[in-house]
Amino acid sequence: MTGPGSPAAARARRRPLRARLRLPARTATLTFKSACFIAVMCCALAGVLGALVHVEVTRQTVATAREKALGKLQDVALAYEAGEDLPPGAGLDPEGLPPELRTLALGGQRGTLVADHLGRPTMWAAAPADGRALAAAVDYGQSARTIRGLDNAIIGSSVLAIGGTLLVGVFAVTRVTRRLHQTAHVARRITGGDLDARVDDPRTRDASRHQDEVATVAGALDTMAGSLQAKLESERRFTADVAHELRTPLTGLQAASELLPDGRPTELVRERVRTMRQLTEDLLEISRLDSGSEVVEADLHQLGRLARRVVRASGTDTEVVVVRDAHLETDRRRLERILGNLITNAHRHGRAPVTLTVDGPVLTVRDHGPGFPAYLTTHGPQRFRSTGSQGHGLGLTIAAAQSQVLNATLRFARAETGGAQAVLTLPAPPERQELRERQEPPEQQELREPAPDAPPRPRTP
């Protein structure tokens, strides 16, 4: 049911309300939550203490005023029994006597009550006398002002105490959260590949100092990063050493295979030797990329021409589509390596047609095969885990690592109409470079771009 009264329609109407009621992002921070907790606790503590002080002081003040009013009532009763004139503020059924206190006195009981008389707070005391109410009044204004002043003092001191405690608490929590943010920043740097990053909390340097929880986490993160760095460095050296040691016997094996007589067995041997040699070269390249010591040799290149050069070098039937050409400063060798690996993977594991599209700094390699597996689109390429039945998964791994060296973004996805799609986004060109491209005529741009087979131009420091 999809009518106006359906549950789906009701959820659709409630969804904008949830969006409007969504709290800002800062409310999820530890500082905000700690500040709210401190403020609530301070308000509750100030309210409880203020109420206790108010009740106790009010009780004592009322008790003092009651004793004073009863003492005056006793003097008035003695004067009434002696037939003397009653003092001011006393009398039989005086004007202003509260009705409930008069009723209490006429019932034969004595009592006191605070009420307003002539615009002033007054403490009344009344007792029975000859069937009438004998009452005495005592000014309660000073006591009321004392209680009111005490309430104002409690409120003011509570506000100051809450504000001061909140500032001190936020300052203390901010110091802790700043250290947590620093630890999180270092963890993100390690995730990004910077294994030299360390929190280096000063509390962890001196073992004799007591460490808090943040220092313990920072020390554990530094220890983990050091262990991970040592392990990865050991694996990288092992891979590089193995690949390097394999190059010499493989070179000899390849030379020996060339001396074998032609035939199907010889072709199989030569093919396997070439595969092993290519695998060794890939392992050496990966070990160099893992070391983080690669240097980018950037120069200005036309992406459309570079893409056509890569397709020609690959020897594959790949269509080059230039939607929007661009000149970018990049490392040509690394970019050609990335595009070559992507094109080779598309032809090896996908299906024709394969298209290389240039749209400004975005280069897309698209095939019409079964598409990338789910693990690759989610977690990226993994070594020795191929996208098809053949290969070692090193081609896409090298492409992803080379893109990181170029500070580019390589994304693997499945095309909407089927097939695999690898999107390489190069860093945006500087404004001065774009301005120069707009000002230069195409003839000068063609002269500035070197020919495909021309030697590299000397670089000036």
What's the topology here?
Blueprint: H1 7-21, H2 30-82, E1 90-92, H3 99-106, E2 111-117, E3 120-129, E4 132-139, H4 141-191, H5 213-258, H6 264-291, E5 299-302, H7 303-314, E6 318-324, E7 327-330, H8 332-349, E8 354-359, E9 362-366, H9 374-379, H10 394-405, E10 409-414, E11 420-425, H11 431-439, H12 442-448
Parallel strand pairs: 6-8
Antiparallel strand pairs: 1-4, 2-3, 3-4, 5-7, 8-9, 9-11, 10-11
Helix pairs in contact: 2-4, 4-5, 5-6, 6-10, 7-8, 8-10
Brief description of this entry?
With 461 residues, the protein is an alpha+beta fold.
Describe this structure in words.
It is a single chain. It is built from twelve helices and eleven strands. The chain is an alpha+beta fold.
Question: Which descriptors apply to this entry?
Answer:
461 residues; 57% helix; rod-shaped
Shape type: rod-shaped
* Helix vs. strand class: alpha+beta
Question: Mind summarizing the main beta sheet?
Answer: 5 strands, mixed
Distance between the termini: 72 Å
- Write the H/E string, N to C: HHEHEEEHHHEHEEHEEHHEEHH
The overall pLDDT average reads 80
Gyration radius from CA atoms, angstroms: 44 Å
Measured by DSSP, the beta-strand proportion falls in 5-15%
**What's the helix count?**
12
- What's the total number of strands? 11
Helix content: 55-70%
Which strand order spans the largest sheet, edge to edge or round the barrel?
6-8-9-11-10
Poorly predicted regions are 432-440, 442-461
